[in-house]
């Protein structure tokens, strides 16, 4: 009986060590947010956007826009999801139920809003 108590104690210590390792594995050092800072956005020809939800390495929703520059190269910009443009895109993203095949609807809507603002 003494041997089984000792085995039980060793098993308990082993399980506790494994649980501690799993807990520490969720807090990976060196991983951070994709967007360390936000860009100030002027009117631009956006071709795509990416929404990154909160995850282990970052405690905030991140929004990146891809645009075509004057030299026809592409550039990815991080925008603040709490500012006007970010809120509009995220609102549209939620409205289309995060359907990636419908992302252009959000960008086209944004273009129409910018066109109306420039006409005023």
TrEMBL record:
One of its GO terms (molecular function) is chemokine activity. It comes from the Eukaryota. The keyword Chloroplast does not apply. GO terms for cellular component: extracellular region. GO terms for biological process: immune response. InterPro entries: Interleukin_8-like_sf. Residues 1-25 form the signal peptide. Keywords: Signal. This is Chemokine interleukin-8-like domain-containing protein. It comes from Poecilia latipinna (sailfin molly).
């Amino acid at each position: 009986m003494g041997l089984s108590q000792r085995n039980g104690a060793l098993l308990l210590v082993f399980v506790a060590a494994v649980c501690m390792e799993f807990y520490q594995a969720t807090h990976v050092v060196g991983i951070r947010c994709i967007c360390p800072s936000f860009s100030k956005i002027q009117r631009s020809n956006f071709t795509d956007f990416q929404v990154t939800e909160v995850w282990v390495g970052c405690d905030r929703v991140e929004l990146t826009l891809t645009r075509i520059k004057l030299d026809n190269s592409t550039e990815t910009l991080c925008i603040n999801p709490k500012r006007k443009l970010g809120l509009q895109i995220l609102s549209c993203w939620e409205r289309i139920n995060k359907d990636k095949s419908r992302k252009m609807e959000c960008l086209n809507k944004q273009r129409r809003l910018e066109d109306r603002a420039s006409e005023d």
